């Protein structure tokens, strides 16, 4: 059976007409990357429903690799997330008006989960390809982190059957033009970055040992 990669992208939120994550995954659907079939799914920006929809997609697709993609505020480059934390602390409401404060995602779950993607190698190969990228050490406390933690919790219960993680991408230029001072990245560059990252994740089962940290 051909290797399968599930890539998810969030729907628009916070008054935006588009979400670059959703626009990217629409174009990636059906592609073959490094010999693997890519299947994509949209996800709601809604607490709990995002995790439920992801679980349903995993059941349908039965992927070997899962990468969730989200739009990041003030993100200047493609950011491969290193860690998901067990807290929902929404600065804004989700798309159904929920705004939890300091609530656990899994009451009996660990404080955090590491991504099982080769995050540093993925960043390195994107940079080698001329694509701005970095390791991120916080996925925030909104629905992106909520989904990331839910994904890693599910994978931990399964054992080592498959790997997964989360990537944040910047606004599209057409969004940033209405947000003075906010960085952006063209969709073509985002797509090249995601394709490069997926190919790396498929080929590298272990991460590299080189710096990817930050000062603060």
UniProtKB/TrEMBL annotation:
PROSITE patterns: PYRASE_CYS. Keywords: Cytoplasm, Hydrolase, Protease, Thiol protease. Pfam families: Peptidase_C15. The keyword Cell membrane does not apply. The active site is at residues 81, 144, 168. Its main location: cytoplasm. It is an enzyme of class 3 (hydrolase). It catalyses: Release of an N-terminal pyroglutamyl group from a polypeptide, the second amino acid generally not being Pro. Its EC number is 3.4.19.3. GO terms for molecular function: pyroglutamyl-peptidase activity. One of its GO terms (cellular component) is cytosol. Removes 5-oxoproline from various penultimate amino acid residues except L-proline. Belongs to the peptidase C15 family. This is Pyrrolidone-carboxylate peptidase. The lineage of its organism: Bacteria, Bacillati, Bacillota, Negativicutes, Veillonellales.
